[in-house]
TrEMBL record:
Keywords: 4Fe-4S, DNA damage, DNA repair, Glycosidase, Hydrolase, Iron, Iron-sulfur, Metal-binding
Protein family membership: Belongs to the Nth/MutY family.
Taxonomic source organism: Flavobacterium capsici
GO biological process terms on file: base-excision repair; mismatch repair
The keyword Aminoacyl-tRNA synthetase is annotated on this UniProt entry: no
Record-level Gene Ontology MF annotations: 4 iron, 4 sulfur cluster binding; 8-oxo-7,8-dihydroguanine DNA N-glycosylase activity; adenine/guanine mispair binding; metal ion binding; oxidized purine DNA binding; purine-specific mismatch base pair DNA N-glycosylase activity
NCBIfam families, A to Z: mutY
Catalysed reactions listed for this entry: Hydrolyzes free adenine bases from 7,8-dihydro-8-oxoguanine:adenine mismatched double-stranded DNA, leaving an apurinic site
InterPro entries: A/G_AdeGlyc_MutY (IPR005760), DNA_glycosylase (IPR011257), HhH-GPD_domain (IPR003265), HhH_base_excis_C (IPR023170), HhH_motif (IPR000445), MIG/MutY (IPR044298), MutY_C (IPR029119), NUDIX_hydrolase-like_dom_sf (IPR015797)
All copies of domain HhH-GPD, residue ranges: 35-186
Enzyme Commission numbers on file: 3.2.2.31
Keyword Lipid biosynthesis among UniProt keywords: no
Name of protein: Adenine DNA glycosylase
Cofactor field: [4Fe-4S] cluster
Length: 346
C-alpha cells in the first residue's frame, strides 16, 4: 500500500470544506495559517471570514490601523500574531507591490512567517516541493512509522521534515501536505483515535505494536507561571472610567485594560483593598470599593495561568480624561476583560 496515495485518496473523500482550501491566493492562505496557529479550526473560521470581509486584499490590511486589527482579532489569543500579521501586510504591500514571494526561502524572510507557515504557503499556493511539519504531522508519522524520537528534542524537526520530504509525491505536494494535516486533525487524533476504521491500520506500526497511545513522545514539559491580577474599574459620578494600554512586552501587548494591581501571590480581599486605597492611578478621592466577582476567574494561557478579580472603585468628582462604557467597548481588550465587562458593566 502506498502511504502517500492512500492519504490523498482519504483526503479527497473526507476533507472539510474550508474557504482557504478553495483558493491558491497566497494572501488568504497566509491569513488562515497565521490564525490557525495554536487555534482550532472551529474557533478560527469566523475570524478568517471577518478578516476577509473587512480586509479583502493585503493592501486593505496594510492600510488599517493596528488598533482596528487587534479589535477584530479580540478573543483569538496570541496577539503577537495579529501585530506581526499587520506588519507583514505592510511589507508585502509596500516592498512587494502586494505580491507574496512565490517560494519557501523568500517567504521565510517575512516577519512572523516561520518554517511551517512558509512551507504551507509555498506548497498550497505554488505547489512547491516542500513538506509541512506541524503537530498533526508529527503524530501521524511517529505512529505510522513507530518513531520514538522525542518531538520536543532539538533534532526532531529535522528528522521528521526529512521523512516527510521523502514521502512527497511528484506534482502533488499541495494535496499531500493538506492530506496528512487533515488526517491528523480528523482521524489520527491525539486521544482515542478510531484505529479500527482507519485506512492505514493494516500497515501502521504503532497499532501493530500497541503503542498508539504512547506516540508521539514528548518529554519536555512547559513551565506554567501563576499570576494574580486585580483590575480596578474606576467609576466617577457620571459613570466614566479610565483605561490603560499594555505597552510592556509580554502578554496582551498593545491591548487595553483597566488599572491593574498584580500581586506575586494569592492575596486576601482585605489586603487588596488596602492596596487599592494606596493606589496612584487617579487623584480622585475613593468613596467605595466593591469586589465584582467573589469567585476569581481562572484564565489559562499557554505558559501562564491567571487568577483575575475585578473591583469597582467609585470615586468623587469627575475622572480626568475619563471614558464611558460605550466608547470603551470600541478598544481592543484581552478577551477575559471584554467578556466580563460586556456582561457586568454598563
Amino acid at each position: 500500500m502506498n502511504f502517500s496515495n492512500t492519504l490523498i485518496h482519504w483526503y479527497l473523500q473526507n476533507k472539510r470544506d474550508l474557504p482557504w482550501r478553495n483558493t491558491v491566493n497566497p494572501y488568504q492562505i497566509w491569513l488562515s495559517e497565521i490564525m490557525l496557529q495554536q487555534t482550532r479550526v472551529a474557533q478560527g473560521l469566523p475570524y478568517f471570514l471577518k478578516f476577509i470581509d473587512r480586509f479583502p486584499t493585503v493592501f486593505d490590511l496594510a492600510n488599517a490601523d493596528e488598533q482596528e486589527v487587534l479589535k477584530l482579532w479580540q478573543g483569538l489569543g496570541y496577539y503577537s500574531r495579529a501585530r506581526n500579521l499587520h506588519k507583514t501586510s505592510q511589507i508585502v504591500a509596500l516592498n512587494f507591490e502586494g505580491k507574496f514571494p512565490d517560494n519557501y526561502n523568500d517567504l521565510l524572510e517575512l516577519k512572523g512567517i516561520g518554517e511551517y507557515t512558509a512551507a504551507a504557503i509555498a506548497s498550497f499556493a505554488y505547489n512547491e516541493n516542500v513538506p509541512v511539519v506541524d503537530g498533526n504531522v508529527f503524530r501521524v508519522l511517529s505512529r505510522y512509522f513507530n518513531i520514538e524520537t522525542d518531538i520536543a528534542s532539538s533534532g526532531a524537526k529535522k528528522e521528521f521534515t526529512a521523512l516527510a520530504k521523502e514521502l512527497l509525491p511528484d506534482g502533488k505536494t499541495n494535496l499531500f501536505n493538506q492530506a496528512i494535516m487533515e488526517f491528523g486533525a480528523l482521524q489520527c487524533v491525539p486521544k482515542n483515535p478510531n484505529c479500527e476504521n482507519c485506512v492505514l491500520n493494516s500497515s501502521c506500526l504503532a497499532l501493530k505494536f500497541k503503542k498508539v497511545s504512547d506516540l508521539p513522545i514528548k518529554l519536555k514539559k512547559t513551565k506554567v507561571q501563576k499570576r494574580f491580577f486585580n483590575y480596578l474599574i474606576f467609576k466617577d459620578a457620571i459613570g466614566n472610567t479610565i483605561l490603560q494600554k499594555r505597552t510592556q512586552k509580554g502578554i496582551w501587548h498593545n491591548l487595553y485594560e483597566f488599572s491593574l494591581i498584580e500581586t506575586l501571590d494569592e492575596t486576601s480581599d482585605l489586603e487588596v483593598m488596602e492596596l487599592i486605597e494606596r493606589q496612584n492611578f487617579i487623584k480622585n478621592q475613593i468613596e467605595n470599593i466593591k469586589l465584582l466577582n467573589p469567585i476569581k476567574i481562572n484564565h489559562k494561557l499557554s505558559h501562564q495561568h491567571l487568577s483575575v478579580s475585578f473591583w469597582e472603585v467609585q470615586v468623587e468628582g469627575k475622572i480626568e480624561n475619563g471614558i464611558d462604557y460605550k466608547s470603551a467597548l470600541n478598544f481592543p481588550f484581552p478577551i477575559v476583560i471584554y467578556n466580563f465587562i460586556s456582561k457586568n458593566w454598563k
